[in-house]
Amino acid sequence: MILHKIFLIFLLRCTGLLSSDEFRTEFVLMRDGKKLAVDFYRSSTIEKLPAILEMTPYGRNLGFTFRGESEFWYRNGYIFVIADTRGTGDSEGDFEFFSEDGDDGFDLIEWIGKQPWSNGKVAMRGSSYSGTNQWYVAARKPKNLFCINPSATLGRPLDLPPYNNAFSLNWAFGWIAKSANLPNNSMKWINPDPSQWLKHRPLYTLDEFVTGRVLPLYRKFLQHPIIDSYWDLLVLKPDNYSQIDIPSLSFTGWFDGTMYGTIMHFKDISKHSPRKNDHFLIVGPYSHGNAPDGGLDFQTGKPIKHLGDLILEDNAFLPGLNMTKEFYDWCLKDGPRPSWKPAKVYITGTNAWREGSYFLTDNLEDKYLYLKSGNGAASIKGDGELDFDCPQYGSDSFEYNPDEPVKSDLSKNVVLPVDMNFYLNRSDFLVYTSQVVKQAFTIFGEVKLELTFSSSVRDTDFVAFLMDVDENNRSIKLGSKETFQLRTRYRYGFDKEVLMEPNKIYNLTIDMHEMGHTFLPGHRVRLAITSSFYPIISANLNTGNSIAFDMGPAIKCSQTIYHGMPSNGLTSRIHFKSNDLNKDCF
């Protein structure tokens, strides 16, 4: 540990992060007697300065944290403080997913306020996990916390890892076993090939099969397959938001997997906070990693122009770090209030920024595109269509085999936004495509897929993709998640499991979250539906048994999507929000 610290100090000096200032590590006592490891960069002068705190589970290093900004903040009159969250890195205690961070953050901020180098004013900085935990800390109302910068944040329970309870294996192993600095994680796995995971039963012990060790957090998630008291601890309610009387600035992106949570927090804090008008949201054409920096590379400061299968325009990028400094200068140094509107959003397609009360007010109209087909919508070669008019009664079917799921990143890495054409020739995809767009139209806000369906089994998955088909016939996937899906046992909510009667007709809604996109003339709207996208989500064995402990064997099933006859509820459609979507658009 001592040698590690000496090397780190040497590295910081060589990179200019230390200069004549003092790098310190402290072990700060929490209210329950546990100690958290904290690094800070103390000015060599006697001047008392405001502090910026990040609480991270990724280790106090230059990798997944904002530690590399230390020199920037010092040069601008701040002290940067970074702490290992409980049970990670050098901090004591057991790691619990967010549930201890509120109290620990309160105690850390109280400690910072008492230090001789602190002027008593603290802000928080972070994204992803270290962005989300800021909301729990702020809800505790530490008196020295003056503002927060929670970017790319998780929202509701079951957003991750069991997104809509179709368990996200890709995220679970990537985060728990590698990214998070937990005591038993490892970069080397004994069975790293996801194609081998399909043969393992049950899901509960897949962690040991893949990594060679038990991952307690992975198993804890699987032990709570519905929203119960475990997940409820992580739900911020209106009373929690009403306690937050400080400003916030949040960044996210249309291709950020945590976009939903970031927008959710913005809506709720703007509604319930005593300072309703002091919250700001930026939504750009960004991914999870580059959203907090306005689309720039945090190491080089240069725009990341190639994002998935798109090349971004020059106007897509913002000086995220300088905007955050302007925000902190207002909150911590009595500088001028930023002259921003509540929300600044970049509309893809037209590639233009808009500012206003987006997500807070809604004067848009509900619009629907109905699913229909003639001879059948199986694969991109079928005649599935999206249309404004509800069709005559009809249906489309496909077979789902859990032992042969659609394999996502086994054959092609999913880096959003991605061209989906690679997948659409499969017979277990239903594909629906609109006529060519004649007049541009913009969708904004929540998008939902309302399905009327039946299945030959008691439980299964439906997975959906919404795409913009461009002039080159690329099917560019829209939305913030690799997939949008619903495990049918949760069609009535995530607080209960209700199995189906085989071959009975049901309705469900797949939430595709917010989108802000313009379909341009010459383009088409495309929807694809299947039942798997492995290992982004675990393959549903279709048995209806416990997700964690199901031993199989997997059951093949027949899936049917119905369209037409809305009076009887037998219709499937996409629900948009738009002011300029009408029949003349096609």
From TrEMBL:
SUPFAM superfamilies for this protein: alpha/beta-Hydrolases, Galactose-binding domain-like
Gene Ontology molecular function: any one: dipeptidyl-peptidase activity
Keywords: Hydrolase, Signal
Domain of life per record: Eukaryota
Signal peptide: 1-19
Xaa-Pro dipeptidyl-peptidase C-terminal domain location: 325-572
Name by which UniProt lists this protein: X-Pro dipeptidyl-peptidase
Listed InterPro entries: AB_hydrolase_fold, CocE/Ser_esterase, Galactose-bd-like_sf, Xaa-Pro-like_dom, Xaa-Pro_dipept_C, Xaa-Pro_dipeptidyl-ppase/CocE
Taxonomic source organism: Brachionus plicatilis (Marine rotifer)
